[in-house]
Amino acid sequence: MTNKNEPLALFRSEPKQHKSQSALETKLAPWLVLVVDDDESIHQLSTLVLRGYQFEQRALKLLHAYSKSEALTILQDSPDIALVLLDVIMETNEAGLECAQEIRQTLCNESVRIVLRTGQPGSIPEHELMLKYDINDYKNKTELTKERLYTVITASLRSYEHLVKLANMAEKLASFNEELEECVAIRTNELEQRNAALLIAQQKIDAQQQVLVQQEKLASVGQLAAGIAHEINNPLSAISSNNEFISEYFDKLYSAWSKLRLATQEHQELTALMSDIEGQFDLLWIEGESQDLVNETKQGLTRIANIVKDLNVFTNSSQQVTSGNYIDEILHTVLGELNIELSASFRMHINCDDAFNAAPDLLSQALSCIVKNALESQCSMNHRVEISAKRKERCLEVAITDWGCGISEDSIHQIFDPFYTSKPIGSATGLGLTIANSIVKSHNGTIHVDSKVDFGSTFTVMFPFW
Predict the structure, then answer these.
(1) What is the CA radius of gyration of the chain?
(2) What secondary structure, in 3-state letters, does 18-55 show?
(3) Alpha carbon 61 to chain centroid distance?
(4) Residue 74, C-beta contacts closer than 8 angstroms, at least 6 positions apart
(5) Do 93 and 123 touch, CB atoms closer than 8 A?
(6) Which of 34, 206, 279, 392 is deepest in the core (most CB within 10 A)?
C-alpha cells in the first residue's frame, strides 16, 4: 500500500532509460507477472509503466490481484507465473508476508520469484524478512523508479528462466536416467542370460570332460587287465592242459600196475619183487596222494582262471561310458544275473528317476560284487538284504544293507585290499570288493561302510551326476 501523501515515485525518471523493443510483435509467449496490491492506482501505473517492457524478446502479461486470497487463487490456477510483485500491507499489516509464505509452503511453488513492495517499511530488517519468508527481493515503493523496476523485473525473470531451465534439465535427466536404467536392465538381463548359457555350456563341457576322463581311466585299467589276462591265460592254458595229461597218465600208470600185479600173482618171485618195489618207492602212498595233488592243482588253476575272469570285466567292450542310465534298470539287471527275486527277505526301494552317465555293465559288476558279499555274509536264520537308491543333493546314493555277521573294526579297513577274504582259502578270489571299489572310484564315487559284528553291514555307494 502506498502513502497517498507520498509522490508517485514509481514514475520518477532517471537519466538513463530502457529502450523498448521494435514494433514487431514477438510470437513467443509473454512472461506472466502477478501484481498484488489493494491500491487500484498501483495496478494502473504498473500496467502503464511496463507496457513496452520485453525480456528475451518476450513481453509481459500482467495479472492482477487485490488480496491475499485472490493472489493465491490466481497462482494456483496459473502455476507458470514467473514473478509476483507483492504489496506487504493489504487487508492486514502482514497479508503480503502471509501470502509469500503460503506460496512457498501451501502451493509448494519454489520457482516463482517474489518481490515485496511496501510504502511503509516495518520494524523487521530486510535480510530477516528475506530469510524467514523465502522472498527474492524487498523494495520500498519510494525508491522503486521505472529504471529500477525494470532492473528488478529483469533480474527476477532471468532467475526464473534459469530455474525453469534447470527444472527442465532435471526432468530430462530423470527421464534419461529412467531410459538408461531400462537399457541397463535390458543389457543386464541379456548378460545374465548369456552367463546362464555359458554356465550351461561350461557344465556340458565339464560333463564331457568327466566322461573322457572316465573313459581314459577305464581304458587304462582295461589295458592293464588285458595285459595281465593275456600273460596269465597263455601259461594257465598250458598248465591246465598238462595237468589233465598228468592225471590221465597217472590213471594209465596205476591201471597198468594193477594189471601187472594180477598177472604175477601165480609167480611168487615176481610178486615178492613187486612188493619190494612198492615198499621201496611208496607206490601205494603215491597212488593215493597223486590224485589229491592233481585235484589241488586243478582247484588252484580254477582260482587263477576266476581271477582272470574278474579282471576281464575291465576289458569288456561294454565299458564305454553312456548317458541315459537309470539306477533301477541297473539294479534289476544285477538281481537278474544273481537269480534273486524280491521277497520279504530281499527288498529294494528306488526313489530316484534321474538319468546319469556311467559304464552300465561295469557299474552292474560293482553293485553285483557288493550284493553277493551281502548275501554271503549271512550267518544265521536272519537272512535279510535291503537295497535303497535315492538322490542326495547332486549325487546318487545306493545303500546295500545286510543283517549278517558284520565286519570287525580290525578288518574293515582291509576289505577293499586285493585278495583279502574272510572265507576259507580257495573258496573266493578276494577281488570282488576290490573291483567294486575300483569301478566306483572310476565313476568319481566312493564306498562307505558301516558295520557291527553280529548285526550286519551297510555299504553306501555315492557318485555324482555328471
Answers:
(1) 56
(2) CCCCCCCCCCCCCEEEEEECCCHHHHHHHHHHCCCCEE
(3) 66
(4) 34, 63, 65, 81
(5) no
(6) 34
